[in-house]
Amino acid sequence: MKRLYSAATGIFGLIGLSLWAVCSIHATASAAEGLLLVQEVSGRLHTPPASQASPSPQVLNAAPSYEQVNSILQQRCIMCHTGPQAVGNLRLDSYAGLMAGGSKGPAVVPRSPEKSELLRRIRGDSQPRMPMNGPPWLTEEETSIIEQWIATGAIDAPIGENQSARPQEEARKEGTSPSGETSASAPLRYTDVAPIFQKRCVRCHMAQGSLGTPPEGIRLDNYTAILAAWERPIVIPGYPEISLLFRTIKGVSLPRMPMDGPPYLNDQDTERISRWIAQGARSADGKAAAVPAGANIRLKGTLTGRWALDGVALAVDSGTRMDKNPAPGNSVEVRAVVQADGSLRAVRIKRL
What we know:
This protein is of the alpha/beta class. It is 36% helix and 9% strand. The protein contains eleven helices and six strands. It has helices at residues 2-46, 57-62, 66-76, 95-100, 117-123, 140-151, 168-173, 190-200, 223-226, 244-250, 267-278; strands at residues 296-302, 308-309, 312-315, 321-323, 331-338, 344-351. Strands 1, 2, 3, 4, 5 and 6 form a six-stranded mixed beta sheet that branches. A hairpin with a 5-residue loop joins β5 (331-338) and β6.
């Protein structure tokens, strides 16, 4: 019996030792896993998410600049989103205006492209898709530039430069233009008249407008198209009285525009377009356009005196063709060639 008892005790002792070893190993493994878990959680608590972490100087230097973004906005968005009449109170004509957002909230959430309404509208994730006169929409490259700019913090200027130029709104409050000129004397720019064209003209005069092809091929949805020095330019910089665009808006030449009028443009908008042309039909960056010397134009109006069209002198010579004996007081169509000084050499005067 003693031998049997000793054997049994020995067996149970070995079993107990084995269980202790297994438990010890399990406890050690659990403790290690726990330590790793604590380290992982600790790391999560102390490491900010990538969307909130400040980009490194290297990343910022490689990121698109606001200047690149602004160039895109100027070309595709500024016609609606500029000045006091900006659609949705969203101004995209300055960094300050862009970051201020509009009546529906922020347009840009720095480091969060997916939450930025500007990018969502450009992609079509939010409706209506922008720009309003698309398609064509922004290219993949243009969209990527805006996305990367937002993702890296949507800063105004590269590191080492002034972080922000004086906002245009502050300049207006001080009575000056962004270039420093007084508001009374500062020449108007394309951004000052683009919203007028967008509201009253672009619906028809765009690549694929409400009438399909723009009437007579005239597009008013961007600065380059408006100033195109093609066979019959509609704007003669410096001379609104011989610019077809202004004459049809004013009703001096018929048919009066916009076609869906009345109501036509109010006096304030009409005068603004006239001043813009008279001051050189300047681009968004303030550069005056050149007179399209040698271009052919065709204008309708009233012959006043020998020889003038609505008070604008016409250079008439032996080569000028006279159809149906035009006389002062007649409604006429004049075909002329624009001279470098803005004067007109009449090629044909036809009584209507």
